[in-house]
Automatic annotation (TrEMBL):
GO terms for molecular function: integrin binding. InterPro entries: EGF_extracell (IPR013111), EGF_integrin_2 (IPR057073), Integrin_bsu (IPR015812), Integrin_I-EGF_CS (IPR057243). GO terms for cellular component: cell surface; extracellular region; focal adhesion; integrin complex. Residues 35-69, 170-196, 265-290, 348-378 form the Epidermal growth factor-like domain. GO terms for biological process: cell adhesion mediated by integrin; cell migration; cell-cell adhesion; cell-matrix adhesion; integrin-mediated signaling pathway. Belongs to the integrin beta chain family. This is Integrin beta-like protein 1. Residues 119-159, 302-342, 392-429 form the Integrin beta epidermal growth factor-like domain. Coiled coil: none annotated. It comes from the Eukaryota. It is a single-pass type I membrane protein.
Length: 472
């Protein structure tokens, strides 16, 4: 009898424990359902559920918020690089525009105060086409055509066609494993391919480990990491062999180029071998770029000093210094001359390759103008037969500012500020400081509207999303 009572007591205890567990599970399930989004994610995958309340993660550059952590303001639509076009506020990923502004990114003005000409000029892309023929111009802003409402045409000038990101099989943007920016897929970690269609067979952490260079940088900051392998940025136009190589892109052969090597295919002045960015000189040659003969009675420093004179570069950056003597480059071009190659008569040529505009002569890279003419290329007549109003109307840039605010107007033509040597262009709109520099040399070609050339979607977005796509 006593044993039976004991068994019943144990059974009752077990039953109570089971009921308690079931009750707890039911409550836990209820709490979990409160935290679950329609697509089945707990707290949108951005937080933890505690007693039916989502505790959202804090992450750069902002915070997740909302009942299920569904809101994050830093991904609101942007226009010209500004969130909500700088004419609205971002709430839970959506722009709420200021008065008199409309559009997904608050980029359109309801009332326009611009003239039709000025408006269209502001809508022209780099090729001069209004809204890239993929949209209509409204008050200086392009309204892109998206007949199916998918928003695949985008960009300030409607230059981006994101339909190029659609996966042919699934129809999803970047296969559902990345984001599309101006027709290019930027894949999530662990995925790669033009449409992010391929999955890596190693973890993102292992991929990062394999791509980390000895200095602790991913692909030495000279390439992209895909599934544990570095693809180096190839700076050789031929595409056959780039100047950057190595398992983690640690070798940069550009460091082996002497200034005048750009006129040939040589490394190390033609007197050495480039090994992972360092010159190993042949016998009888020395110097960082193997440009100093050991037969020279001068030291490397004395030779360089003799070739520099008043310049910060040997031979004014226009020639080869050999034992204190300059040989001007490019070879055979008599426009570059002088004991230290200090004269560059190419600077006297205008855009049409005419010397001093046909109104003067060149003296050591400077134009000496004939009477009645002035300017860097003698391009401005001193007399003018138009009124001040007529003149200024011809000097207006696309934004309506005279000579872009960086020069003065004379007889309908802009004279860019001589103190700002880097400003050029018909309306002083170009800033040549943006031209690529290497080893102290400005680009060997002509710098034209460099700022616009650099602001390509790929470049801008690579900077913006580098944290997301750095390692796959």
């Amino acid at each position: 009898m006593h044993a039976e009572t004991l068994v019943n007591s144990v059974l009752v205890s077990l039953l109570l424990i089971l009921l308690s567990a079931l009750s707890g599970f039911s409550i836990s399930l209820t709490f979990s359902l409160r935290c679950r989004t329609p697509d089945g994610l707990i707290c949108s995958g951005r937080g933890e559920c505690e007693c039916g309340i989502c505790i959202c993660q804090v992450t750069e550059p902002g915070t997740f918020y909302g009942p299920r952590c569904e809101c994050h303001d830093w991904i609101c639509p942007t226009y010209d690089g500004k969130t909500c076009g700088d004419h609205g506020i971002c709430k839970c990923g959506k722009c709420f525009c200021d008065e008199n502004w409309l559009g997904e990114s608050c980029q359109y003005q309801e009332e326009c105060l611009l003239s039709s000409k000025t408006s269209k000029d502001l809508c022209r892309n780099a090729q001069g086409v209004v809204c890239s023929k993929a949209g209509t111009c409204h008050c200086g802003s392009c309204m892109c055509h998206n007949p199916h409402g998918k928003g695949l045409i985008s960009g300030r000038y409607c230059e981006c066609d994101d339909s190029e990101c659609l996966d042919e099989d699934s129809g999803e943007v970047c296969g559902g494993h990345g984001k599309c920016y101006c027709g290019n897929c930027y894949c999530s970690a662990g995925w790669h391919g033009d449409k992010c269609e391929f999955q890596c067979d190693i973890s993102p952490w292992e991929s990062k480990r394999r791509c980390t260079s000895p200095d602790g940088k991913i692909c030495s900051n000279r390439g992209t990491c895909v599934c544990g392998e570095c693809t180096c940025y190839d700076v050789d136009p031929s595409g056959d062999w780039g100047d950057i190589h190595g398992e983690t892109c640690e070798c940069d052969e550009r460091s082996c180029h002497a200034m005048y090597d750009r006129y040939s295919d040589d490394f190390c002045s033609g007197h050495g071998q480039c090994n992972c960015g360092r010159c190993d000189c042949k016998e009888d040659w020395a110097g960082k770029k193997c440009d100093h003969p050991l037969s020279c009675s001068l030291s490397v420093e004395a030779s360089q000093k003799k070739c520099r004179r008043t310049s910060s570069l040997p031979c004014f950056g226009r020639g080869q210094c050999l034992c204190g003597q300059c040989t001007c480059h490019p070879p055979g071009d008599k426009r570059v001359h002088g004991k230290n190659c200090e004269c560059d008569d190419r600077q006297c040529e205008d855009l049409n390759r005419e010397i001093c505009g046909g109104h003067g002569f060149c003296s050591c890279g400077r134009c000496i103008c004939s009477d009645g003419w002035f300017g860097k290329h003698c391009q401005f007549p001193r007399s003018c037969d138009m009124t001040d109003k007529q003149s200024k109307s011809l000097c207006e840039a696309a934004d309506g500012v005279i000579c872009s605010g960086k020069g003065s107007c004379h007889c309908g033509r802009c004279i860019c500020s001589p103190q700002e040597w880097y400003i050029s262009g018909e309306f002083c709109e170009c800033d040549d400081r943006e031209c690529d520099k290497h080893d102290g040399l400005v680009c060997t070609g002509m710098c034209s509207n460099a700022a616009a050339l650099l602001q390509t979607p790929t470049r801008a977005l690579t900077d913006l999303f580098v944290m997301d796509i750095e390692v796959l």
